[in-house]
Amino acid sequence: MGKIYGYIRVLSAEQDVDGQIAMLHEMQVTDKDIFIDRPEEEDGFPQYQKLLKKLKNRDLFYMSSLYMLGYDYGEIGKQWRFLTKEKKVDVVVLDLPPVDTRRGKTQYGTLVSDVVLSMLEYASNMEWMERKQRQRAGIERAKSRGVQFGRPELPWSENFEKAYQMWRRKEIRGRDAAKLCNISSALFYKRAGMLKEMEEGEYDAGNGV
Questions:
Q1: What is the C-alpha to C-alpha distance for residues 172 and 155, in angstroms, rounded to an integer?
Q2: CA 96 to CA 85: how far, in whole Å?
Q3: Are the C-beta atoms of residues 74 and 82 closer than 8 Å to each other?
Q4: What does the alpha-carbon distance between residue 113 and residue 101 come to, in Å, rounded to a whole number?
Q5: Contact yes or no for 90/101 (Cβ under 8 A)
Q6: How far is 205 from 56, CA to CA, in rounded Å?
Q7: Nearest CA-CA partner of 89 in 60, 132, 128
Q8: pLDDT tens digit at each of 209 positions of the chain
Q9: Which value, to the nearest 10 degrees, does the dihedral of the CA atoms of residues 32, 33, 38, 44 take?
Q10: DSSP string covering the chain
């Protein structure tokens, strides 16, 4: 086994960071090898990026929850694949004791890692399908109330949803997402609000700009 690292991503003000640090100490992770991201202070999770550069084959990576890796199953699965397949490190999720990629390696190779990855990919596909269904349902409800979806002032770019999801995960700022779509920041935020309302089934009015 190589070095031992721990990672904490602060997801809310109520999160018990000190408790997570204490758990990592119990796992023999030293303070200098614990990386903490506080999204309200910095964008892009710089401490996670710094940690990725340090990780090497056979290192051990501790985190309290799978949600330390992302805000949705698609992003979590992407990071899980990178850690276990590209970096080839072992991962332990403290709030899910069975998720320990060191288990069964002698007999089954990367069994635990592969099972978790398959589950995340399945969950990601289901999440995407449900989101699309909510969008369609929201549009149909709006049309039934007489909302007209006219020709947009500027076309929706093909990569809008990708930029939107990156912005929702706080990987990029709104103005950077707008640049990716070649639209103004104001128009990006307006369309992002429309898309979010469609996903939640609350879209009520608008002209499809």
A1: 22
A2: 20
A3: no
A4: 5
A5: yes
A6: 51
A7: 60
A8: 789 999 999 877 778 899 999 999 999 999 999 999 987 656 678 999 999 999 999 899 998 888 888 777 778 888 888 998 899 999 888 887 777 888 756 444 455 556 565 565 555 555 556 666 666 666 666 667 665 555 455 667 778 888 888 888 888 888 888 888 888 888 888 888 887 777 665 544 444 44
A9: 120
A10: ---EEEEEE--STT--HHHHHHHHHHTT--GGGEEEE-TTT-SS-HHHHHHHHH--TT-EEEES-GGGG-SSHHHHHHHHHIIIIIS--EEEETTSTT-BTTTTHHHHSSHHHHHHHHHHHHHHHHHHHHHHHHHHHHHHHHHHTT------SSPPPTTHHHHHHHHHTTSS-HHHHHHHHTS-HHHHHHHHHHHHHHHTT--------
Q: Which amino acid is at 188?
A: F
**Tokens linked to 95:** 């709030």
**C-alpha–C-alpha distance, residues 193 and 198, integer Å:** 9
Which tokens in the block code for residue 137? 């349902």
Residue where the block lists tokens 């796992």: 27
Amino acid at 124: S
